[in-house]
Amino acid sequence: MGSRHSVMANSSSRFLSPTLVFSRTSFLLTARPARVSLFHHRHRCCCTASPSNAAPAATEASLTNEQEGLKLIRSPHLVAMEYADLNLTDKFSEELGHVRIRQHVNPLRSSLMVPAEVPDWSMVYKDATLPLMVDIGCGSGRFLMWLAQRTPNSKNYLGLEIRQKLVDRAKYWVCELALSNIHFIFANAMVSFKQLVSTYPGPLMLVSILCPDPHFKKRHHKRRVVQKPLVESIVDSLVPGGQVFIQSDVLEVANDMRGHFDAESDKLLHINYIEPNMLCDDDGWLLNNPMGIRTEREIHAEFEGSRIYRRLYQKQL
Fold this sequence. Notes:
Blueprint: H1 4-10, H2 56-72, H3 75-82, H4 121-124, E1 132-136, H5 142-150, E2 156-161, H6 164-177, E3 182-186, H7 189-198, E4 204-210, H8 228-237, E5 238-248, H9 251-262, E6 268-270, H10 296-303, E7 309-315
Parallel strand pairs: 1-2, 1-4, 2-3, 4-5
Antiparallel strand pairs: 5-7, 6-7
Helix pairs in contact: 3-10, 7-8
């Protein structure tokens, strides 16, 4: 078998599809309209303007009804609606029980510095030679499952998550959905990314790092997942034409990640230099989410009125 780079070069036609945002992208789907328009998030929800001759009482009643609706809508409801297609059960096996999510984890803790065991990829995926997307810090895994369900025979997906219970639940859901092109590993990406992807038989086409833990305190910045060693491993592991998608609702974190990947300009180009139709604002942030689905954190952040800062890089051929 040839190298992963030659596999990509010889099968580039497999990745061309009119449903994709742009021609050389195999994993980025056309953005779909939001499921919920009225309650997209509470700070941007607007009332329909009343005719000038309408009674003030009617306007007041309309406002009251909308306020009552906002009380009923919460971001978890929006997440459930966004991912309704998955039809995931809220009940889990007795072994899992209720999953309580620890929001902040110190990745430098000694117990998390142990490299993850490399799986037998032929046992993990139905076809372990398919192009691979890796989501670093995949959380619940719903985002990857939504993508995997839409491309069951053409792409594989790997979620790396540092919280064991989330991985266990994600694996349970994968079995429930009977998906054979997605896998989750309990792993510290800072330690295990290179070892894991270097053994994968197929080409690494996309790596996403979406709304990672910000670790706000300056003394904790070393805990942030995007550090120079990981960035170098990602860039080296991608096949030519492969991509890196990063985003955060915290501008300082987004700028920090951007600085690391911008520093690889001899190997990476931002997508707007390759595909002019991928529009950016004056500061170079992508205007739209190219993935076709929002992550859970993205939904929560936009509900609260926050902006999402996005960058998409492509490895030069």
